[in-house]
Amino acid sequence: MYSNMKPTVAELEFYILQYLEGMTFHMLKNLGLQYENTYFLFEVRLYQQHGVDSLQPPTKHQHYSSEFREQVAQEHLIDEISIYELEIKYNISSGKTIRS
Question: What's the pLDDT tens digit per position in 28-56?
Fold first, then answer.
């Protein structure tokens, strides 16, 4: 795999399943995984929370209702849930979305 190419959903799911079955990140890198450790672990947590659908690339910009945006903001500001955790909980593709 070329360094600028992303794995397919099937390839990424394979790497995640191997990781969850006990293979180390270093071993996965030797198999050809091109992700950095932090980003890969983020993908693993998304997969655990939302399944294979969370690995699909977004097809368009997601629009969130005012109520949903308010709920997420309250969870971050009042309940002090981190942006990272909210990204995973709600399968939001970027922390920038939550920050804005």
Answer: 999 999 999 998 999 999 999 999 988 88
Backbone angles phi, psi at 4, to 5 degrees: -95, 5
Report yes or no on whether pTM surpasses 0.85: no
**Hey, what amino acid is at 79?**
D
Strand locations in the chain (E): none
Nearest to 88 by CA among 38, 42, 28: 42
Identify which has the larger pLDDT, 59 or 28: 28
Q: What angle do CA 58, 20, 37 make, to 5 degrees?
A: 60
The residue count for the chain = 100
Q: Residues 15, 43: one domain?
A: yes
> If you search the block for the tokens 């992303």, which residue do you land on?
6
Identify whether 30 is part of a domain: yes
Domain coverage including residue 77: 66-94
* Rounded Cα distance, 61 and 77, in Å: 24
Contact (CB, 8 A) for 55 and 62: no
